[in-house]
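Shipment paperwork, digital attachment
Item: protein structure file
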Amino acid sequence: MNRISTPPPEMDVAPELGQSWTHDMRGPISVIRGHARLLALGKRGNLTENQRRSVEAIEKQVHKLELLLGELDSINGADGPGAPALSGVFQADSLSPPRILIADDDEDLVALLRELLAGRYTLRFAKDGREALASLRSEAFHLAIIDLHLPVLDGFELVSALRAASLPWTPALMFLSAESHSHTKVRALALGAVDYVTKPFDPEELAARVARIIASVTHEASLRADAMTDPLTGLANYRSLAESLDREIERARRYGQPLSLITLDLDHLKAINDEHGHDAGDDAIQLVAQVLKGAVRSFEIVARQGGDEFAVLLPNTNASEAARLAKRLRAQVASQSAHGVTLSASIGVAARDREHDLDAKSLVKASDEALYRAKYAGRNRVEVDAS
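Attachment content:
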C-alpha cells in the first residue's frame, strides 16, 4: 500500500481520542466499501456507465480514507493489519448446511454481512455479548464472527466465558474489529481465534476467509467424527465416551448437579454368533443401539464401549431417575428379536452427586460392578450401585 504524499494535519487532541476516532471510522468505511463492491460486481443488477463511474469514484475515495487511517494509526502507534493465522484444533459437530453466528451491534455492517454470506450459510445474529453467549451455549455453529467491542460483554469477555462453559462443541472464532494493535491480535489468537480481520475490510476477501475457515472446520469435524464414532452402530465410541465423561464430571462439580452412568451388556451374544453367525450378532448389536438412541434426550450420550457393551451418560440425572430409564431400556431390549432369538440385557447404574463426588474412573467402576451383579443374579435385570 502506498503512503499518501502529504502528511495529515496536526491534531490538537489527546492520542486516546485520536485512536477512538480512527477506530469508530473503520466500521462505516467497511460498510461503504462493501456496498460499493457489491454494486461493482453486479450483485444488485446491471449498472449504467455513469453509475459504474460513480461506484469507481466512491471506491477511490474509500481507498484514500483507508490511507489516511493508516497514517493516523502510525501516529497513534498502532500496527497495520496482519495476515490471518490459524491456531488450535477445530472441534465442531458435523453440521449441514454450515452455520455462522454474527455478533455485532452495527446494523449496517450486519446487513452487509448478511448480503455477503446468507446465500451459502445459515446465519444467526446477536447484538451484544450476552445474547451471543446464550446462542453459543444452546446451538452448535461452525464459525462465530465476533466484533471486539460488543455491548454488555466485549469480544474477549465473550470468548473467555465461552471457554469456561466447557461446551461439547466449540466453533471456530473470527474477530472483526477496527483495533489494529499487534498486542490485541496476539491476545485474540491466544484465546483461540483462527482469524482477526481489521475494519475496513474488502468484502470479497472476507467472504474468502470465511469460506476457508468453514472448509477447515468441516474437514476437521469429519475427521473427528470418524475418530469418535463406532462404525457398526453410528454411536459414540469408547474414546468419545471417555472425553464426554471427563467433561460432564467437571460440569457436574461446577454446578452442583448429579450425573449418572448406565452400563448395558447384551446377554448371550456369543450364543447368537455361534448359532446364526456373526452377521446375526451384528444385527442384534444394531437393534440394541437403535433402542438406546430412541430412548434418550438429545444432550445425553450413548456409546458402544466395545463388543456387546454399551453406556449411556446422563447429565443432571440422579440415581433414581437413571434407574427408571434403565428399567425401561431393559424392557424395550427384551421386546426385540434377531433371527428368531429374543434379546435381553443386563444393566448396571451408578451416580455421582454432592454426597458421592466420584471421579470418572470411580463412576465407571461403580456402574461396572452393578452390571456384574446383574449378570451373576441371572441376567435380564437392572442393578443400582448402593454406595
